[in-house]
Fold this protein.
Amino acid sequence: MGWMAWTGPTAAFFAAIAVGLAIMTASELRWPTTVRKGFLPIPTTRGDRFFVALLTSAWVHIGWLAATEAPVIIASGLSILLGVLILLKA
Amino acid sequence: MAEKRVHWSVYAFGVYLLLPLYWLVNMSLQRNQDIVGEFAIVPRNPTLTNYAEIFTNPVWYEAFGNSLAYVSINTLVSLTVAIPAAYAFSRYRFLGDRQLFFWLLTNRMAPPAVFLLPFFQLYSAVGLFDTPFAVAFAHCLFTVPLSVWILEGFMSSVPREIDEMARLDGHAFGYFFFRLFLPLIKSGLGVTVFFCFMFSWVELLIARTLTASEAKPIAVVMTRTVSASGLDWGVLAAAGVLTIVPGIAVVWFVRRHLARGFALGRV
Amino acid sequence: MQRRADNRAWFAVAPVVVVVAFTAIVPLMTVVNYSVQDIFDVDTRLFIGFDFYRETLRDPRFAQALLRQLAFSALVLAIEIPLGIWIARALVRNQGKSATGFLILLSVPLLVPWNVVGTIWQIYARPDIGLLGAAVTALGIPYNYASNVLSAWVTLLAMDVWHWTSLVALLSFAGLSAISPAYYQAATLDGANAWQTFRHVELPHLKAVLTIAVLLRLMDSLMIYTEPFVLTGGGPGNSTTFLSQYLTTMAVGQFDLGPAAAFSVLYFLMILLLCWLFYTSVMRGGDDG
């Protein structure tokens, strides 16, 4: 696996996504999701909202990196806030 | 609707489609010195030497063999894994089915260029670099999702009651699946083979990156001929004509099913 | 009859998941790993975080390639979608022999290997030996796709129209064939003209196939590589260097692992976003997935 050139931060990143997926799966088995309509223009399930949250945070980071030299951690904080908002309210 | 004459613009478009092809065939029938020497709408001294060159020069015919090798492996692998998956998608609801289907679709849409770097490292690391297997597996990136997509459409058009009836009649699942169900979607299988074949056959970027000398496919040999050893337009055109032939042969075999494949809109 | 809920179906999709994980997930994770490090060789690497992303996002050549890419995709869609619908409409009125023959002719460009499409047009459009090139030059129009930017773009667009309009036409043909003649009769009785018939009878029925046609053309034009590579090699200058060309030069040409990987991640996220937007809009129109 040497050619994959793992680093601590990226390993942690993918582990976090894997854990996220595992939690989604487990909660899906325990409390099956219902489709609901929030502030997004489409009705979503919990899995959809999780995906939208991830994609949003990716683009928040890209926008941040393109726009400013300020520390990326602010973008990460913003993403987490947005992610929680999407998961709960969308 | 009553039979009406086809609008002239359609014929114009037909000519637009045919002219470049005609020109390719025209070029392939002339010697290089005739091509660069004098402009001719119809070949002055038609000759088959360019085709002879391809069939006798190992660089060319081995490249055709290499392409056919990985395309066949790829089609076989794609169908083998895609058939059960497509059946599952068309017959069952299961945890994450929509997400999984979307994820497969994204692989059909992703630019191969994105995967070049890791593919090169991956297949070098497992020792498959410069073999047909490397290209065949790498092409699974888009042929597997495509196969699942097409087959799912065909399988869903077979009523689910048929599965139930076969079970009530006491047929084992294996018998039902291979003897009753698959024959029902024969045309779907044909269309799937066609598209796996086509997309793997036409791909250049991955095939070029994952081969060096041993497994060099025809697409690569053609582009190398252009850049390296001077330009022999006649041989290049002849090779072009020959690469189109398998595609046309396949479309001829599946022509009755093709419209249906397109009708499902799942290319 | 509804699809049955049964999670054992996972056993049937497992092989696909394994194969696609091997060909897609492992490479994607690798790209992300590469994108955050400066790699000198396997054992000498330096973690640098998001620097390559910042660099790529501010790289004017990246911005230019992106702009060219978007312009190219927009032009391709603007030409091919209406033209494809037009051809399909003209054909579907005629169910005779000529329509069948024409459908086969339409599918031919789709079967030509992409590099051969490049080769065909390379020969066809050359001012000295090509039919098209010679004809245009004979009309007194300065034309050379190897040295003139406008010629290169026009040739690329003409080539893409040649290659892919058939896909739109065949999809639309399939969609139009499914419309019951009763709709047309009703439209005629209501005194609808051709445009009104198209707008209110045909277009609603075409919505599903057209969404797929637009999706496929958009995604495929966004990843275009082979045809311009053969025809113009990205030139003259960089005038036909699109995203995939630029990325490939970085990745296999210069072997700049880190920047190329960061580029790849950005490119992939762009496609993922577009794909998701389209997928949700398609699925919204249809039934469940």
